[in-house]
Write a structure and sequence with these properties.
Elements lengths: L2 H6 L6 H9 L14 H4 L5 H18 L4 E6 L7 H17 L3 H36 L5 E5 L5 H11 L4 E6 L16 E4 L2 H10 L1 E6 L4 H15 L8 E4 L1 H7 L2 H6 L11 E4 L2 H12 L2
Parallel strand pairs: 1-2, 1-5, 2-3, 3-4, 5-6, 6-7
Length: 290
């Protein structure tokens, strides 16, 4: 041990050293250290502790790396990249040529639809590229792309950031299906959650804009939660951009909400539309005078 280590090094035994010591001893469950006992920590009456820990772990990492402002990208997990969709169609058409039956016909129709929808993957990828490329060239701007960490639009967002030479965040959550971290998330910012509530908080805590591509229940959930927080002044106003105006106006009759008196006409001003990645990024730049 050097003199510097003697003077400034750790003097108290660390928690990990205590765990290592205990693990070398024969012990009952009661003898385990409380913070190293999974059976203890996963009890229902310890939920409040788990909620705190699940919030604190990403919070500490993001603070250490000075991540203070993010752009949240939502959208369907079911959309494929153009290359994946084209391969799916090619294989489906080949199967149909070998055996023309209803199952293979349906497979071709599904693949054709995926090819059409892959434009959203490309758009999300390009949008994230534009944001991250701007950040890499302008160090006074530190807007980091954050996604749900899984496939589809989430993958496209992280992929675009990586291709621009930057970093991005993925907030994964344990689900029975479809949720595995995509390969384009910056590893040190690849988080895993059990509680939706804590994941939602990390989505919105640093959000400086939300861009929602076509998606299902999860996308709608995050969209309306963000709108409600801003409408009720629980959150400061940030750009909320819906990609593909035709899709969103066909899906949701916002004007009906005004007509029925359940929202005010000015609440519609919280929503903006974009039909290209460039338009979406321009709206954000104009909002913050970038």
């Amino acid at each position: 041990m050097t003199d510097q280590e003697k003077l400034y090094g750790r003097h108290l035994t660390s928690a990990q050293q205590s765990i290592d010591t205990i693990n070398n001893l024969e012990n009952s469950s009661a003898y385990r250290l409380a913070f190293a006992d999974n059976d203890f920590l996963t009890q229902d009456n310890l939920r409040h502790i788990r909620l705190q820990l699940e919030y604190l772990k990403p919070q500490q990492v993001l603070e250490e790396h000075n991540i203070n402002a993010t752009i949240v990208v939502f959208g369907s997990a079911r959309f494929l990249s153009p290359e994946q969709a084209e391969l799916l169609l090619k294989n489906a058409q080949q199967a149909l040529a070998e055996e023309n039956n209803s199952q293979n016909q349906q497979a071709v129709k599904y693949a054709q639809a995926q090819v059409k929808r892959s434009k959203y993957y490309s758009a999300a990828q390009q949008f994230s590229y534009l944001v991250t490329d701007h950040n890499c060239k302008n160090h006074d701007c530190a807007l980091t792309i954050i996604s749900g960490g899984g496939p589809g639009i989430m993958e496209a967002a992280n992929r675009g950031a990586m291709e621009a030479g930057g970093e991005s965040i993925g907030l994964n959550i344990v689900l029975p299906r479809e949720q595995q971290p995509n390969q384009y998330i910056t590893p040190k910012f690849c988080f895993q959650f059990h509680y939706f509530a804590i994941r939602k908080m990390h989505f919105l805590q640093r959000a400086r804009a939300l861009v929602a591509f076509p998606g299902g229940f999860g996308t709608l959930d995050e969209l309306f939660e963000t709108l409600a927080l801003i409408q009720t002044k629980k959150s400061k106003r940030v750009p909320i951009i819906l990609f593909n105006k035709t899709f969103w106006q066909s899906l949701i009759n916002f004007d009906l909400l005004v007509e029925e008196g359940v929202i005010n006409a000015e609440d519609l001003d919280l929503i903006q539309y974009a039909d290209t990645p460039e338009d979406a990024w321009q709206l954000i730049k104009e909002h913050y005078n970038l």
